[in-house]
């Protein structure tokens, strides 16, 4: 228990350093080289409402997240695909801190923007398998509900607080509340929810992968 508290303190301290780093203006957006590794039209056509898109972003915070998690996929963020039949193309609902976005917390953006803000060769799209109807529409519907609620970003990474939420926490809560599937049964041992369970082939199909560490099924 003491070890878990120490790990949590280290993570929260790292996040605090990230926020401070950004707040004093040390983060230079002009240095970002936006991704030109877009999803092809054929890949976009493969998407369904409720798919989960995973990526690594640019900059200090994304690097810090991957360092803390130390997972093989080198990703730092995720969102939920929605509105795949909309004339303007699909959108992505995700949760981002105001240190990185004009909006704090749950927000929506066009998938082209989400992909453009991803590092090249980092994108993975997965689809939850464990649904009685084989439809993931409910996942996107629930994501829209969180968007409408305008929940702020959970800077403390506190899973017991349902009034704030971060990116993997959003996916975790939707699957737990609607499909009784706990992505992180051992979450008590880790203060931050990583991305490894999202590429577990027992529960997710890999729909698209530009990430060499993850093979498309």
Concise overview:
By secondary structure, this protein is α+β, with helices and mostly antiparallel strands. The chain has helices at residues 2-23, 41-46, 59-69, 111-116, 137-149, 167-179; strands at 52-55, 77-82, 91-96, 105-110, 124-128, 204-209.
3D architecture notes:
There is one protein chain. This protein is α+β, with helices and mostly antiparallel strands and 217 residues long. The protein has a single domain (2-209), classed as endopeptidase fold (from Nostoc punctiforme). The protein is built from 6 helices and 6 strands; from the N terminus they run H-H-E-H-E-E-E-H-E-H-H-E. It has helices spanning 2-23, 41-46, 59-69, 111-116, 137-149, 167-179; strands at 52-55, 77-82, 91-96, 105-110, 124-128, 204-209. Strands 4-3-2-1-5-6 form a 6-stranded antiparallel sheet. A hairpin with an 8-residue loop joins strand 3 (91-96) and strand 4. Helix 1 packs antiparallel against helix 3 and helix 5 (137-149) packs across helix 6 (167-179). The protein is globular. Mean pLDDT is 84; it is low at 1-32.
User: Quick one: CATH superfamily?
Assistant: endopeptidase domain like (from Nostoc punctiforme)
How many DSSP E strands?
6
- What is CATH's topology name? endopeptidase fold (from Nostoc punctiforme)
**Major sheet: size, sense and barrel closure?**
6 strands, antiparallel
- Helix and strand content put the structural class at alpha+beta
Discrete helix count: 6
Net shape: globular
Strand order of the largest sheet: 4-3-2-1-5-6
Question: Mean of residue pLDDT?
Answer: 84
CATH architecture field? Alpha-Beta Complex
Any idea how many domains? Answer: 1
Q: Unreliable stretches, pLDDT < 50, 5 or more residues?
A: 1-32
Under the CATH scheme, which class? Alpha Beta
**What is the string of helix and strand elements?**
HHEHEEEHEHHE
Multimeric status of the protein: single chain
First-to-last CA distance: 39 Å
- The value of Rg in angstroms is 16 Å
Give the amount of beta strand, in percent.
Answer: 15-25%
* Helix percentage: 25-40%
